[in-house]
Amino acid sequence: MCHTSTTMASANDVQRLFLQGVFSRSILSFKHALVLWEKCIDAVKAANPTLDIRFSDRREDWDLFVISINNSLNSLDLEFRHLTDEQTGREMYAMVNRKDDEIAQMATDYTPVEIAYFKAVVEQIMLAPHEAYSVSSLLALREVNFLKTNMTKAQAEIVLGSFVAKGWLLKSRRGRYSLSTRTLLELLPYLKSSYLEDCLECVICYEIVTRGVACSTPNCKAQLHYHCCRKYRTRNAKCPACSQDWPQDLKNMTPVGEEAIKDGQDEGRRVQRKSTEDASDEEDEEEEMEVEPLQPSHTQTQSRRKGKGKGKGKGRQKKVPANMDVDDDEDEDDEDEAPQQTQVNGRRRTTRTR
Q: I need a labelling partner for 126 at 20 to 30 A (CA). Which of 36, 95, 259, 325 fits?
């Protein structure tokens, strides 16, 4: 006579089922995470009615459950991390790789070439002028020109669509790409280590800000998420940093994010670079970044032609003692069209006028 042994469900199976549910989703809200937790408890209790486990919607019980999950994930260098969505203000959760090579976690879905392209687009988003933290479709596609690959713009357009479909990037009605909550959650250590000076922090929740508002008072560095600002305004109408009165309507405050830039203002390509050691302090104070035109103007073209075969230094452009500059785009555009050139004074990257 054959006997089949079965293992009774235990309380530890709640955590196992929950992790399976999390891994099957890229990102989920706090509300959905609670529902998933409750369903896992119900499933385990149905398998073993003798277990004394109960669901609780109290915040402290949820926090203890998350701690227990992360303790189990320590050996795998994974973390069940949360971040507030900048648009909705909802608390979101995702499984995050804690290692230093956060970008490499996309390798399971994308090729090395596509990952390099993603990093290039992320850089243009992080270095966007006016604290816009977004890049136009045109500039995003032009990034393939600077990759040492044979990726075409048609292929890049498909890959960009995949980034949006899988929740790595957001695309607005204006056709601008920005970082999604999933990207901020999973790549935050990478962003802070690579673009520390370009990462803004909300003065209320102390999380990264890529969409929100900023105080319009000159020299005030206060930036807030929209949802943080609305909550703060219910009890205080003054800036938490400089104590100046704020306008009643948030639309009258300085925007952070896509609304901070107009179409055509980010025509140049920005590149992060270290300051040159031989740059004088005076030059460093005068210029921190120069945005070069996408194509040389007619005057610049003539100057370069005249400079050929002549003495050293003639026809050269001014050296920029900056941390970032913008390279000339290699696309074939109309050379007679006068480019726009913008310079940003001061040591900050931003060109936002307060």
A: 95
